[in-house]
Amino acid sequence: MSLTIKLHDCHLNLLNNNHLGISKPKTKVPNLKLKFRTKPIYHSDPLLSVVYNSTMHASSARPPQSAVIKSSLIDPDGGALVDLVVPESQRAAKALEAEALPKVRLTKIDLEWVHVISEGWASPLRGFMREDQYLQSLHFNSLRIEDGSFVNMSLPIVLAIDDETKERIGSSNNVGLVGPGGDLVGVLSSIEIYKHNKEERIARTWGSTAPGLPYVEEVITPAGNWLIGGDLEVLDRVKYNDGLDHYRLSPRQLRKEFDRRQADAVFAFQLRNPVHNGHALLMNDTRRRLLDMGYKNPILLLHPLGGFTKPDDVPLDVRMEQHSKVLEDGVLDPETTIVGIFPSPMHYAGPTEVQWHAKARINAGANFYIVGRDPAGMGHPTENRDLYDPDHGKKVLSMAPGLEKLNILPFRVAAYDTVEKKMAFFDPSRAKDFLFISGTKMRAYAKSGENPPDGFMCPSGWKVLVNYYKSLQTEEASQQQAVLST
Amino acid sequence: MSLTIKLHDCHLNLLNNNHLGISKPKTKVPNLKLKFRTKPIYHSDPLLSVVYNSTMHASSARPPQSAVIKSSLIDPDGGALVDLVVPESQRAAKALEAEALPKVRLTKIDLEWVHVISEGWASPLRGFMREDQYLQSLHFNSLRIEDGSFVNMSLPIVLAIDDETKERIGSSNNVGLVGPGGDLVGVLSSIEIYKHNKEERIARTWGSTAPGLPYVEEVITPAGNWLIGGDLEVLDRVKYNDGLDHYRLSPRQLRKEFDRRQADAVFAFQLRNPVHNGHALLMNDTRRRLLDMGYKNPILLLHPLGGFTKPDDVPLDVRMEQHSKVLEDGVLDPETTIVGIFPSPMHYAGPTEVQWHAKARINAGANFYIVGRDPAGMGHPTENRDLYDPDHGKKVLSMAPGLEKLNILPFRVAAYDTVEKKMAFFDPSRAKDFLFISGTKMRAYAKSGENPPDGFMCPSGWKVLVNYYKSLQTEEASQQQAVLST
Question: What keywords appear on the UniProt entry (chains A, B) (predicted)?
Fold first, then answer.
């Protein structure tokens, strides 16, 4: 999702796409309890109201590792949600085992992938990819599973090692994984080491090998020449201790919460940018339309991406604060919204990556996925154009193998209506009344401290952004001062 | 298939791969006639013996366009073989219609694709790809068909036009296609024009954007910035008038010939290089093993690629002459071999292209496909390594969506056995006895007029190559002379 509010220019109407497999809800809601849920108790942070009321959030209540979670809405890929956290009773023994193995040191972003895999976002994947999975991902954006059907798997989820580490592993069948801070994270078993052809991986994942692709520069270029696949087990849930871990709900936790709320539809909204009123409009409009279709309790999963993002994106903590203001202000309804952090790092790989974003939300229990203009896209790093055709994301998503069971909701373009003085769906019959505010323009407003047009974003959310950019400028100024005075 | 005879280094045994879905033949051969075929009458060209005996080769006996060909061995993709040649009775009317339309001028290679599509090699594709097909091909190497299943489609089969042609087409719904010589070729109907993002197409197809990829330099770089898709109809079968058209058997003709011969297995061998005794060994060995498995009449489809190849490959006419010597010499048995030209241009796109090579042979009626080391591969254009991992081709092929019904036969490595003085399957227990003769080495032999080791290639076939390289040198010398004397 780009920061731009020129959301898209397609001609598809929201929720009016029979060819996309959207169906009326079943008249009978499974697991319907006779007693309806009581209104949740609100906490100071409205985003968390639902979470803190959920019994599943008590960390000691971890379900057994092998339990199969069945959601009333959508099955996880492969039928069972993967959970690779070693049960507490076996943790000490597993740590001893890991300690004795050759070690692989993880980067910060490797650890984000460990997080993703261990909680089942990539179900049915049970570890870093072996070569046969890597090749299927690279060539087919999908994996064939045992019953002959396909699950979507568009991004290679791989772990790179260098020559020295490969040498050290030798003929060992298993390795221990060590976090960036030196702490033991887990074990990778029945390993397979194979060549890391970076050029091919980049070209097939991004459809470009241009210098300046953020994930490539950050992760792939400095990585080793080998990939190591195997079955993952982690000693404990991955935590970041950044004050945001309570937002990091696992797919299992989200599914339980949806069930607890008796959601009969869950619509996911992936974002890596602040929420403006154009986003809010389409989320609220989606809910309204789902109600019109007969769903009784559609729940919004507002799901900001929490892993690696490029340096000029708004950082996660600022975004979470901004999102919380949007809910506090009532722009989104806390009672029908769940906010969680999606732990994946960002690839900026457009149509390839949007499949991953959607597939992971199937595993989290969402049966509707909202997709806009140029999802997971960015400007071409060396040419003056978008890296991807802005319409390809939604097209590819609607055709992708393994995503058949997910309802894709392409959304209509929203823009600032200068007459109504609010964000509204673009009306081509009075085009001149609409103002498209680009991400660059919005950032320029925030940096200069100038206000955007009334109704673009709720004032408290906007203030969060202004303060962030002000703090950046202060920081820059003091750095320049430091340089000057040395 | 590379010219090198270091065919591969994998550990898979030919016909011993249960996981690849190879099954014993059905005990009852469908369509078995009580009277067995009479021995074919041999013509001077042994490659053609089978063809010239076939009743289907009479050009007037074209079956009706809509007829569904059912083979006893393997169904065409999509269930029906596509045939886009306008019936003779409608040809004049169609030509008049085409004449009145805006025109698109085809290059020589565009026309090769017209040939490929019109005869059904790419079934169920009925024309140049529209954007939804292009995107599926690029991202998933497969197309979803109406019943929800997938057919393989790894290469984008597209037609590029420039801005001026797009302008000329305007809002017309159909265009006429004109050959490189100015002749009317056919019509493309219900057209769709969409952007030709060359960088993305190249990166996703080749897994590289390095300068020097032959098809890219020849076809894509000079092409226009738009792609035009639509339904194809051709006025007549594509002919080349190069003395080789009788080798250009359509999938329909090949299927008829397999049926006429009562083949109970057809194994296809794709090549773009001269046949040496290592190739012959594995083709003969494959037949022997198919017989061991209980097949009664396995037929080899020796299927050299006839479209665009890079300048340093041996040209088609020389290869066909060489192949004919190999059959004359009895290295391959003319009675159990059919030689045809596969009209596709070559992409040199390795694991992506080998899928196309295999898929097209399904449509031609082959139910076994032989795959060796580094299929459709080449050296990296700018680095000192193979462009593709030599084992990826066979791995990708064995996992590719839409190729499930095809038996993939990865072959064992053959090399020159210096003790036995012949090409033999490599025996690692006496590795030092084996000599790997690379393609470069072989070309060097042929250029210098030096003979390769006895038993590398039949002498008459070798002579064809030597003569070809001698003629090249003469030509070069006279060109140099011409330059010097001007």
Answer: ATP-binding, Chloroplast, Nucleotide-binding, Nucleotidyltransferase, Plastid, Transferase, Transit peptide
